[in-house]
């Protein structure tokens, strides 16, 4: 009954309560919060230095790429969640089948790519954390562990978004 990509259901009034109760909207909110936590942990406590040094370095084995990767995918994931959240808001109003198809395919492709990138990020951060010397970590260890943990959870939240898009 819904036609191609639900086009037969297009139109009607916006119901906020019904909208927020949709599983893909809840998963998108969770994904945005997880991405926010990851990049906030890395921006806030991901760079440290010793008292005798002036230059800040990444807490993950002094590998700047580890911090940049985590911050980069976190920011882009958060912005994408906002974009696709807005798409979710306006999707019922779109009656053009082609537009709906491209939006669903964009959500599917982006969610698949970001599921993979979060997996790579989790592996990369975990590997670099395992090689980090304990004398290099004075503060920020909890933030580094939180970034790793929430990167792991992000794999599943984006995988869930992938499933909903499919």
UniProtKB/TrEMBL annotation:
Q: Main location per UniProt? A: membrane
MARVEL domain boundaries? 19-166
Keywords in alphabetical order, please: Membrane, Transmembrane, Transmembrane helix
Family from the record: Belongs to the synaptogyrin family.
Q: Which residues cross the membrane?
A: 25-48, 69-91, 103-125, 146-165
Q: Does the keyword Kinase apply?
A: no
Q: Which PROSITE patterns match?
A: MARVEL (PS51225)
Q: Where in the cell?
A: Membrane
Q: Name one Pfam family in it.
A: MARVEL
Q: Name one GO cellular component term.
A: synaptic vesicle membrane
Identify its membrane topology class: Multi-pass membrane protein
What is the official name of this protein in its record?
A: SNG2 protein
Superkingdom in the source lineage: Eukaryota
């Amino acid at each position: 009954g819904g036609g191609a990509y639900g086009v037969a259901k297009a139109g009607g009034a916006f119901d906020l309560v019904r909208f927020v109760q949709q599983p893909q909207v809840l998963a998108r909110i969770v994904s945005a919060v997880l991405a926010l936590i990851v990049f906030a942990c890395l921006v806030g406590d991901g760079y440290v230095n010793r008292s005798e040094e002036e230059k800040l370095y990444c807490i993950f084995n002094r590998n700047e790429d580890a911090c940049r990767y985590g911050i980069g995918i976190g920011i882009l994931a958060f912005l994408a969640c906002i974009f696709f959240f807005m798409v979710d808001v306006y999707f019922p109003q779109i009656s053009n089948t082609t537009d709906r198809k491209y939006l669903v395919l964009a959500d599917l492709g982006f969610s698949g790519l970001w599921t993979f990138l979060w997996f790579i990020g989790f592996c990369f951060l975990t590997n670099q954390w395992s090689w980090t010397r304990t004398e290099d970590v004075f503060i920020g260890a909890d933030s580094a562990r939180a970034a790793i943990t929430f990167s792991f959870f992000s794999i599943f939240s984006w995988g869930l978004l992938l499933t909903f898009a499919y």
